[in-house]
Design goal:
The complex is a heterodimer.
Chain A: H1 5-17, H2 19-41, H3 43-46, H4 50-77
Helix pairs in contact in A: 1-4, 2-4
Chain B: H1 36-55, H2 65-85, H3 93-110, H4 122-144, H5 160-206, H6 211-247
Helix pairs in contact in B: 1-2, 1-3, 2-3, 2-6, 3-6, 4-5, 4-6, 5-6
Classes of the chains: A mainly alpha, B mainly alpha.
């Protein structure tokens, strides 16, 4: 099992970068869950806020995608 | 670098599908070379134009299927832009509609097996996002002159020191916009398609038990269908939100 220590670093780093996606998962879950609990309390006002929910999900998700991008860069570009 | 990984029956490389290759022989890609990316972007434009042209041709009171699809997409985007920016934003409706249709159909056509996903390439989405960024900034300065810079100055913050710190944060978040705008779309599409290919690799390696990954592919494919539409919507609505910042700066 001979290997290049730099390559090992790449793989370990890419794996570690993927931890960030878990954070994005928590964020998206918080946005969607809080929307649902609010929407069940006042269903009449829920319809107007769906755009805000998607914007919130998009912002939360972008940060997870950034960590995915770092993983991809480590695997294929460095 | 990761080419050595394809050893033990795992012979589908998940990133191979994103390769830009010339359609008519040769291996070099110049700016004028017709590649698979060119083909699928042209198909995207053709399908989107066809839907809107055929859909709006008859203008029947009782719409045909095609007309009602075209009308509901039109109404959806128009409502989105008027809801966020008010009436002034309706002037920029054609641009947002173009972006939405292009991304929507690029995402949906990419889900056809063996097709190519133009929106999974950062080069394509970065161009779209930079176009939005520069045009929105230009609209902001054209409409409000130097008052547009009030966007960065949070006048409602209690102390001067806080306002200066917030101004830094606002400036950074303004210039990160094109990055996150483009990477979000490209990353989502690339991740989804790579996941499908990884599961396809499992299905090839497992033999008879490969039915399990095939079921998983079916489920992920359904998710990807949802993601394709949601990402087009998110790209369009963020464009509208940025446009709203340019039309109504100040907090």
């Amino acid at each position: 099992m001979e290997g290049n220590i730099a390559e090992m670093g790449q793989f370990v780093g890419a794996g570690l970068a993927c931890v960030g996606m878990g954070g994005a998962g928590i964020g998206v879950g918080l946005v969607a869950g809080n929307f649902l609990s609010g929407a069940l309390r006042n269903p009449a006002a829920a319809g107007e806020q769906t755009a805000m929910v998607f914007i919130g999900i998009a912002f939360a998700e972008a940060l997870g995608i950034f960590s995915f991008l770092v993983a991809l860069l480590l695997m294929f570009a460095v | 670098m990761a080419d050595e990984a394809g050893g033990s029956g795992f012979n589908i490389h998940p990133m191979e599908q994103f390769e830009v290759v010339p359609l008519f022989g040769g291996h070099e890609v110049h700016w004028y070379t017709i590649t698979n990316a060119t083909l699928w972007m042209a198909l995207t434009v053709a399908v989107a134009s066809l839907l809107m042209l055929v859909g709006s041709r008859s203008r029947a009171h009782v719409p045909s299927r095609m007309q009602s699809v075209a009308e509901s997409i039109y109404g959806f985007v128009h409502k989105m832009i008027v809801d966020v920016t008010g009436k002034e934003g309706a002037k920029y409706f054609p641009y947002v509609m173009t972006l939405f249709l292009f991304i929507l159909f690029a995402n949906l056509l990419a889900l056809i097996p063996t097709s190519f996903a133009p929106t999974s390439h950062i080069a394509v989405t970065a161009l779209l996002a930079l176009a939005v960024f520069f045009s929105v900034t230009a609209i902001g300065f054209y409409k409000h002159g130097t008052h547009f810079l009030k966007l960065f100055w949070v006048a409602s913050a209690p102390t001067l020191a806080l306002r200066i710190i917030l101004a830094f944060i606002e400036v950074i978040s303004y210039f990160v916009r094109p990055l996150s705008h483009s990477v979000r779309l490209a990353g989502n599409m690339m991740a989804g398609h790579a996941v499908l290919k990884v599961f396809a690799g499992f299905a090839g390696a497992l033999g008879l038990a490969g039915i399990l990954p095939i079921l998983a592919i079916t489920a992920v494919y359904g998710l990807e269908l949802l993601v394709a539409v949601i990402q087009a919507y998110v790209f369009a609505i963020l464009t509208v939100v940025y446009l709203n910042d340019a039309l109504h700066p100040g907090h």
